[in-house]
Design brief:
The structure is a homotetramer. In chain A, strand 6 and strand 7 form a beta hairpin. Chain A has about 325 residues and is an alpha+beta fold. Chain A folds into two domains: about 120 residues, Roll (2,3-Dihydroxybiphenyl 1,2-Dioxygenase, domain 1), CATH 3.10.180.10; about 180 residues, 2,3-Dihydroxybiphenyl 1,2-Dioxygenase, domain 1 (Roll), CATH 3.10.180.10. Helices cover about 20% and strands about 30% of the residues of chain A. Chains A and B meet through loops of A and loops of B.
């Protein structure tokens, strides 16, 4: 099965992964986790919501934590478009192709459009946000893992092919992908708009759900440091996957779980994917080095536990991957 | 004086700084410098030309070294456009505004357009290149400073305002800029298309000329390592500016001079500049921390020695900066 | 049970862990592993033996690989004494306490004394070696994991208490130790002479045998790099334990297995233990963070596979540790 | 002139550089500098004194700051001996050779002996200190440059040869030294007891005075980070010498000046010097790479400004070095 071709003249200009809105039980606990331990910056706290950002970010928020009585879900992910006029073009396009969408007012953001993608995932688009101070050159405030900026989201979903076709039509390009060894079924796609390996990732699984959101750290030393901090605080249980290097994207990583079970990745750096002649990299499903070039298996909890989208039912993918491969993924 | 406003609907799509063509005296000496010591990768060597690239790059070349009897000059810098159709749009646009341009055949590149910018700098545009293997995930071949990819070019020129207006019209955005303390005169502009702080930089000086081209290194440790390698080989004279951190762009850097005097910067990382609401950062000329946040002065040779463009006469800028400030730049 | 008290007026002056002599099947394969991949330096190769050292070392050898028809064993470990006169004092002391010892001629070493410790482990002592060039300031030769110098040896043995008493009598101090939760049985001791956490380590197990020898790397970045190199060469099977940080000694580590199954650790740095008032750190056996502060379990093969000493029978320890704890060590 | 030979059977056992007592004007300002910015740990604050230590240190203090109306001086440097019995041996030895010494009571220290060395430098010896918690494995408290432990002191003095002979007699070994190009005059000696390149350093100059004390940082990344922190706080004036790598000792370094002008070095790592056959490294005075292998000149203020010892007159060395070489040292 051929992988979907990107639309090089998309109907409107999506520029990057922008923000994620998570529901949580206790804002103080979330503040402690993300700000005190991991090193994100708090821009604002309202009665029921924490607005956080990375040290490089001028946007008001990239991680939004909303207090909820039914915590542990994801309200929606946010993508940035370039200009407000792109929102109008998006509205027209979604109406034309029958994608549900509507205008909404969102605090601290400019004009915002909500839509649901073909797998039922809720997404919002905006071009502008209130501005905050970038702390990229205030090294005295770089603590913990001091993430620079949000980078991407990974979502298991029922139909990877459908998701990929939808976003390819919106101009997303595939940087890397995984399919069955006989190339007949697509298992996962790494899709990008901002010129590095990924803004959004879809993998076959029970979805739509959020596997993790990722923020970029300075370098491998910083990733080791934040893991050491967490370990020496006696919080090793929140290390959901220990540091290693992904084959896909070639980034050093560590994954943490927050008090509500949401998963965040710190990764070090990516390569550039801008040129028209840059072809996707294929990883057959049986090549488990895509997950760790060191051959370090993931845990079942890293693999299968995810955050559902608020009020959205999940469905099992028709192609979860071969059982043998999964066993190899987890060690035995 | 207000800084030029970027054109958000440019006539064609330039995507990034792509390559530079330098003239050299001795290909073996250049190979030794760039490949054996600094860690670039050789893609191809013809009778009179070396084609080099960074470890992440799939493009055939980002640094081209052409043997010449009059070495030490720059034939031209190359910018990438997204698609071949952008070249046709560029050709039409340049003809419309009276910018000299012409189609040329260039080995290992797709369709290529040459033009001269308002300061007389020769530039070439192409969308495609022959493809080479990316070594981003072949760590065994990461040697010396193992630069990932080319990032930007810095050019002194006679008229910074004119250059900035020209490239802003082509869609370049200003990330940071330096002007006189009274804001009446523009001294330097850092311009970008690919979403980080700069693809091309113009500063007031004797030009057009190339001050340096820059490639991205993995991290600060790598920058220290390549400086240590050069120092322990007894080649400290080629360290043109010792490692420090720029205020502008916030990158750790080191500068080396090649056997023909061309200057290359290794830097560690940049921030992202993608959003419409991301405003340029201003640095008054008297704030010398723009050059080093550690307060480390540059040398006069780093400041004033440049590579002229082949066959292009240089003219002194009308606004070289205040003498007092320059003294502060060099230490005393 | 109280831990043994060090003898602050030892009969002779042992200064540090010095070298190890391993038997191997194929010198070329060993050369490829240790020199080409891991970055040790070859000092000399004779008909049947490779002599290797770290980049900081002036001593002729710290890792000796002897070709053998029965490879995969350890001929002996070597400790350095300060002066030749210490060898004479050692000879007198061993004769006095009934420890088997004898003078031997060893190529490239000064006067050398062999002895067998109470668990039957063969050890050699010398004060001098032929000298080689230190490459500590030749950064151009730092490749792979470029270990600085040998640091310590870890040995499972039948009787940890007996071993600890013997070496404490020779002036070794305990930096850290593991015992049963009720403090009744000693499970492992980390012993040092050179002022950092350990030169020799004894743990309860089937022994005497060598679990690993360790060399110091420059920093965490270097440890990540050598692991990336091994992974990207497709050699992930030789990564015997992925990078993490030990609780005991507080060092970042990675373990590799050589073609004959010998295990080498790279670690980043240690703390200093010099002062008389520096007390040992206790780790109850059930606290598995002693092995990884990140909570990363070891594999069974890392735990149980060891290199026997050539011609020395191994005996199971009387206190291997509680089965429940061991399960926790390996994950599930 | 031959360099002094170490006494391998010294009259008592000095183990390492231990602590320094500095006079300061304002304890709050000193606290802000050393604890808040540079990352040392405060053990205790009394009415007139701050007691600080590194993150690895269990000793109560390695940097002592005493409030004084005549600040900017050094009360004395402290060396550690192994056992209290070494203090008695020291007392006997000093009396025998006519070195002025006396017993004193010092808070938070065990039995303490004061003496004055041949250049008039005040030194104290002790074997024991009150113990504090080591934070080596509490990564959440590693801030700024988070120095691990004190390492060495550098002192200009009137007579380098005399100083070297005195300390060599006490068992100090020379790791590296600088002399005139014709080998007739000794200019500087790097002397050690703890097995790395230096505990105390003597150079020809106006002395006795303290040029700097040095603490070990984790790695080069940490040294860059603390320099970035200082620069981004607008405190670049306290960067007394920017990061580079010394030829002597082969360490990456940065030097800061405190509010009273005292100079502290952070350096990354050293090699081991333990073996009897480890010969000193010679650096002719004209080889300025001993100061920076990158060829980065020092400033005059780094070179000539020092902290005098409280109440001790300074005298100019008879061999300050050739003027030509000094010019080369500073660039000009």
């Amino acid at each position: 099965m051929p992988i979907p071709t990107p639309n090089y003249h998309p109907p409107f200009n999506i520029t990057r992964a922008s923000h994620v809105i998570l529901t949580v039980k206790d804002l103080d606990a979330s503040y402690n986790h993300y700000v005190e331990i991991l090193g994100l910056i708090q821009t604002e706290r309202t009665a029921d919501t924490l607005y956080l950002r990375g040290i490089d970010e001028r946007a008001h928020h990239s991680v939004v934590l909303r207090k909820s009585n039914a915590p542990g879900t994801v309200d929606r992910i946010g993508l940035r478009v370039f200009m407000d006029e792109d929102l109008d073009k998006a509205y027209a396009h979604f109406n034309e192709i029958g994608t549900p969408c509507r205008w909404v007012d969102v605090p601290f953001q400019g004009k915002t459009l909500h839509f649901e993608d073909p797998n039922g995932m809720p997404v919002e688009l905006c071009a502008r946000m209130d501005q905050a101070e970038s702390l990229h050159d205030k090294f005295q405030h770089h603590r913990g893992g001091h993430p620079k900026a949000i980078d991407h989201f990974q979502m298991p979903c029922q139909n990877v092919t459908l998701a990929t076709q939808f976003y390819a039509q919106l101009g997303f390009r595939i940087s890397e992908y995984t399919d069955s060894d006989d190339e007949s079924q697509l298992w996962g796609t790494w899709l990008q708009r901002k010129g590095n390996p990924h803004d959004i990732v879809f993998t076959a699984g029970k979805g739509p759900a959020l596997h993790h959101f990722a923020m970029q750290s300075k370098d491998a030393s910083t990733i080791m440091h934040i893991t050491d901090v967490v370990g020496s605080m006696g919080l090793e249980d929140i290390i959901d996957r220990q540091p290693s290097r992904h084959g896909i994207g070639n980034a050093m990583f560590v994954y943490f779980r927050d008090p509500d079970g949401h998963r965040m990745e710190f990764y070090d750096a990516h390569y550039q994917m801008i040129d028209i002649d840059h072809e996707p990299i294929r990883w057959p499903l049986s090549n488990t080095k895509r997950s760790s070039i060191w051959g370090v298996p993931a845990s079942r909890r890293w693999y299968f536990e995810t955050s559902p989208f608020t009020g959205v039912e999940r469905h099992q993918s028709e192609f979860p991957g071969e059982p043998m491969t999964l066993e190899k993924m987890f060690g035995s």
